[in-house]
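Comment thread on ticket #2218

A.B. wrote:
> Attaching the input chain for the structure job we discussed in standup.
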Amino acid sequence: MAEARINLEPEVQEIFRIIDQGENFLLSGGAGSGKTYSLVQVIKQVLREHAHSKIACMTYTNAAVAEIKSRITDTRLEVGTIHEFLWDLIRPFKSELMLKLIESLESEAPGSIKPPSTDFDPQTLHDKEIQYKEYTLVREAIISHDEVLILAHGMFRSYPKLCDIAKDRYRFIFIDEYQDTSQMVIEIFLEHFLSGVKNNVVGFFGDAMQSIYPDGVGDLKKYVEANRVQEVKKTQNRRNPRLIYELANRLRTDNLEQQASQDSNAPNMLNGSVIDGDVKFIYSLGEEDKLAQVKDSLGWDFSDSKENKELNLTHNLIAPKAGFPGLMLIYDGDKILDYRDRIKSYIKTKELADDFSSHTFGEVIQHLMQSFPEDLNRINPTPAMKRFIDDAPELFERAKRENYEIFRRIYLTKDALIDDKKDNPDDPQKAGSKRDALIKHLFKIQDILSLYQRQKYNDFLKRTEFKIRSIDDKRKLKTVIEHLSDMSNTEIGTVIDKADELGICRKDDKLEIFISKNSYVYDRVKKIKFSEFQNLYSYLEGYTPFSTQHKIKGAEFDNVLVVLDNGNWSSYNFNYIFEGQGTESVIERTKKLFYVCTTRSKKSLAIYYKNPSKTAIKTATQWFGQDAVTVIT
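C.D. wrote:
> Ran it. Output below, let me know if you need it in another format.
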């Protein structure tokens, strides 16, 4: 078999030297290095050399699952999402699983499963059997993706025999895009597995520099240093022109430096040499936004969203163009909630010990005004808040009637609306997504409609409670889907009710809890036309010329324009990375996001920066080169 390895790429040969030692491995490869190709080579070679062994290959999205399945067909290989894999391992142990569910529901520790209400008794679940579905109804022992991770982590931690059962079943376990994997998943394979007595090999594939999501493990550095996993680095670049991967090398924060591929057939090669490509850093001076001029100067056809992409960090400017301004205004423009925060801050600053639990928001305001007339300038709304309130008097009256304790706990952020982690038309549930339960529920409705319309009936039936037992049921389903599809101009609340009533998408615990705790928000959203949400769906799923910088990880386009606009996000700040100052964690996170953006292009890359400082321009010159930096007037 050693001779058969001669045809493998060098990195894969190194991986097999590690496998021969019975050790776990990590393949680290930069953007465009061909990590999926390496993964496929490793799987095929393992299948050749280990005739009686089974392999589990895990990833996050159904699209990635389909990609790997299209390249390899073998009954000894099981490819699926991480959630499916873990559920398949733990579901046979029904009593232990139920004990873990009840234990988690009764726990108040961070990361535990939240009960559907304060009066719910988890002990009532003992006679039920846990089911894994696309929604959560804890009262009926129905769990979804998030709960599967929590329960699996607890099961493998508490039951070493389960670890041995998993290792007995799968001699090899491979995890793709490991950097986005939950810390709980990594702990299962690199910590809890050690408690068993059996052995197997776990392999990880990914790039720490592309860990742009805050809830992913990020890197395996501590496990590499502890010798629990051995690292192999893949330094070739098969996607990007020379100027782009050289720029990417300057952005990396580790010592992995990419170079041209040795494969003359690589996409970025021409006549045996890597193409140079085109890189531009364009900036404007003053506060006027000159994005339109920049796009005109590039001459790209941005209506061709498959080849040309405009990447933005902020969604606010995109919302009106893409057709969801009402939803964005609710999630990122409610000055009444800003006023609520002003009142909360005042109470905290004054260190008031008053019990406001039985008061309305309006009563709290009145109490403060009467008790502290000398502080009215700090209690009254700011001019901007006052203008919003004057324009929406009925909404303010509604807010004043809200119980203060409930109202003060409403947390609203545009992330809850437009977070696009791992967005994929075939993957409605994004593990770790910041979307709130209401927006996730709307996505489930639209995803189900989309699956039916795209004739993906098997996936459709997995995600709906609608039962088909006869020809009449099929006819009824067609009528139901057509009815829902015709409700674009209907209010969101009505669509949610109808989808539940028709059995297409049930209201689950998470939605009900959201509504009970955020009725002020829900009552606003439910009046928005469903068509506006459908516009948001199209935007986040990549069906428009616009895209955010998060959702394009893994994608590639001929020409990419990156718009450097912080969008008032606290998690990212482009000024920091160009000026070399700011919070260390924000700098690291932003540099990784910038790295992902710059490495999407197969031909041309353009960066637009409005009104940068002299320091930022100097940094850009160092990164891009003097000739690539130009000012637009």
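A.B. wrote:
> Thanks. Noting for the ticket: The two ends are 64 Å apart (CA to CA).
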